[in-house]
Amino acid sequence: MTAPTTATRTRGREAAQALAAEMSKLVSLPATWLTLGGTLVVNLILAVAFTVAGLQGSTGTKSAVDIGLASISYAQAGFVILGVLTACSEYIGGQIRTTLTAMPRRALQFTAKHLALAIVVCPAAAITAASGVVLTAGVLGDTAAPVTSGRVVGALSGVTAYLALTALISAAVGALVRRTLAAVVVLLGYFFIVGPLLRDRTPAAKYLPDTAGFAMWFPVADDASAVTPAQGALLLTAWTVALIVFVVIGYRRWDM
Amino acid sequence: MRALAAEASKLASLPTVWIAMAAGVLVPSVIAAITASSTRSTITRGAATVAGADTGYQELAFGVVGAITLGVVAISSEYSTESAESGGGRQITTSLTAVPARLRFLLAKISAVAIAAAVLAIIASGTTMGVIHVVLGEHAPAMGADDVPRLAGVVCYWVYTALLAFGITVLTRHGVIPLAVLIANTSVVTVTYLLTKITPLANYLPDMAGVRMFIRRLADNTAEISPLTGGLVMTAWVAVLLVIAAVAFTRRDA
């Protein structure tokens, strides 16, 4: 008679299954698609508004990339909301208990959730940003100032990375706060009010996540002390990783 | 009166309301402290002689984020569904059982929001102006009889914005969208401000008209609207929205 063998899965298989579970949860949430679709539509409407303003000459630039991406500073609200919803939907109605019963390794589950979010957000951000630029270029037509394809690719990849990292930061804050509205107030209050105000008033603000992230794609004045796009990307990534690590440590130690 | 007391008690027990209160007081006063200290160094260097007339008021226009949050959560909390193990109910059904007259319920809620927003605005104005006077010292713009209607304008603007947020949320029954739209529109360069670049009519949108009650000089804006006209335009917007909200609320299913 042989002893019953317990089937164990390898760490790699466990991680793959966790990622598949988190992907399934994220794409089956209607709010995900409503948020992404709404953000795309709002971004296109704002891009039209900026283009009309650009045709009247009040934006100070004729570059289709700069005008087409100007609306992103508002459309980022959609990505903040998506990040918060991803994290906080677990806490509506106690889904978190089921989640942690199925995936007791909290750090793995948390990482899988953020990875799934990044997988969904990256293409969505690229489509949102590119559609705004294409629309603006189409409307401006021949009146647009010429831009090099390198600048277009650089700006679009910068925007995509910025929006994805912003969504990850929002998910981490959402996991920390656990209440959708409170997290949305804190994050939007920072990204739309406190961040821009500090940017105008204190030089040290250029190291904060939103301003450093803006350097990745927003044309800044030529200034020796300004943050370059690469430095901005590095700073924003560092902020994101630091925040996620901080939240993971708390997530493992606290009650759910 | 008891309905009002009940609504006030509900507001005071919402954690998000306290976040709103903290944001409403801290955002304008901390930003005012940073602005005032940089103004102070400009003055001591001799580059400027006096602080601008809008010192403090500019910051109070951003602090309205507290009033927005207050107005939104006051009603969105009624509609949030509880977890399945606590019955999956919504507070609105309990509220309407206790106060079956819908208009009376809505009026009590509107009054509670208006009172809370007014109190928040008074505290925020007091701390913001106090911070500016402490930091700037003798360089601070003198407070005179002229400032009384302007500070009243701040309170008015905050109360109206809270009611605007409240009215929109009554219609959407969910807080995230109104919160996102309204906070995004409180940004340094607001969407409504961009619209004034396209059409001058946008100067009569509620927030653009409302800030005229206390801001004297808007950057790059030539439209002249007196504080009184601005206040009346915003009153009209709020009144229309609240009437629509009341009609919808009394006629539809809870």
TrEMBL record, chain A:
Please identify the protein, giving its name as recorded. Answer: ABC-2 type transport system permease protein
Q: Which domain of life is it from?
A: Bacteria
Q: Does the keyword Membrane apply?
A: yes
Residues of the signal peptide: none
**What are the UniProt keywords, alphabetically?**
Membrane, Transmembrane, Transmembrane helix
* Native organism: Microbispora rosea
Q: Which residues cross the membrane?
A: 33-54, 74-94, 115-140, 152-173, 180-198, 232-251
Automatic annotation (TrEMBL), chain B:
**Keyword field:** Membrane, Transmembrane, Transmembrane helix
Q: Where does the source fall among the domains of life?
A: Bacteria
Q: Which chain regions cross the lipid bilayer? A: 17-36, 112-136, 148-168, 175-195, 228-249
What is this protein identified as?
ABC-2 family transporter protein
Which organism's genome codes for this protein? Microbispora rosea
